[in-house]
Design goal:
The protein is α+β, with helices and mostly antiparallel strands. The protein is built from seven helices and twelve strands.
Length: 254
């Protein structure tokens, strides 16, 4: 019963705020992109940042198969500046979606191989799911910090919009789903509320290492002023409520 109520609340939240964003925040898109057609897309040619920006203040062990690397607050803003401003990535995202966004959450983490007898348990979002308590316009940005050369390296797996719709109806996975294979600092964009996705399970002692940014539609491009503190905790859900009292920093003020 509680699960039914939770799913109902998530659906109401998603429908209402998606409508609000589409009506008040969305600008016209000149050409429909792969992101709009499929629900995900890879953007390449992001220049390498200064490696010192990945110096961490502490490491938090979620469990024996996942570690969070806590970045210094100033380094977070410098990384946002590098990836989103210097490389003009924020303009590319707005061009693809018609939205400006608030960068509300960031996570730098490592994942390790889960034994076969434990892989059906939840360790680091390693089972198929959607991010239900979000709008349909929310974005996740995945940036690998080392090359993902094969499917055995544990790259994120994403079902397209069509495949996700079929999965919801038939509970069967189309085996031709997307698995991320990329060079470090390539960027994956996807819509977590619409596309089923899961973390891949790295094999052969490979350690997956990457950044994840959570983006929510906003009137202006900005960064959550509490992004440093939030990286120590679980990713916030229901973003319109979770970040309601948080101050935002405009990108041009970084």
């Amino acid at each position: 019963m509680l699960k039914i109520i939770y799913n109902l609340i998530c659906n109401i939240y998603s429908i209402y705020f998606t409508f609000f964003e589409n009506f008040f925040l969305k600008k016209k898109i000149l050409k429909k992109s792969n992101l709009e057609k499929k629900g995900f897309d890879i953007i390449k040619s992001i220049s390498n940042p200064d490696i010192k920006l990945f110096d961490t203040t502490e490491t938090l062990e979620n469990n024996k198969y996942m570690k969070k690397k806590i970045l210094a607050e100033n380094n977070i803003y410098k990384l946002v500046n590098h990836f989103f401003i210097k490389n003009k990535f924020y303009l590319e995202i707005s061009k693809l979606t018609g939205f400006n966004y608030s960068i509300d959450f960031m996570l730098y983490y490592q994942t390790f191989s889960i034994p076969d007898n434990l892989k059906n348990q939840e360790w680091y979002a390693n089972n198929w799911h959607r991010d239900k308590p979000f709008s349909k316009n929310a974005l996740k940005v995945i940036i690998p910090l080392k090359d993902i050369n094969t499917k055995d390296d544990g790259g994120i797996k994403v079902l397209s919009l069509f495949q996700s719709s079929e999965f919801k109806k038939k509970k069967k996975i189309d085996k031709n789903f997307f698995t991320m294979i990329a060079k470090k600092y390539d960027v994956l964009l996807f819509k977590p509320n619409l596309c089923f996705h899961k973390a891949g399970n790295p094999k052969n002692s490979y350690v997956r290492e990457q950044l994840m940014f959570q983006l929510n539609p906003s009137r202006n491009w900005c960064v959550n002023s509490n992004i440093f503190y939030k990286q120590k905790y679980l990713e916030p859900k229901f973003p319109k409520f979770s970040y309601f009292n948080d101050k935002k920093i405009f990108l041009n003020n970084l």
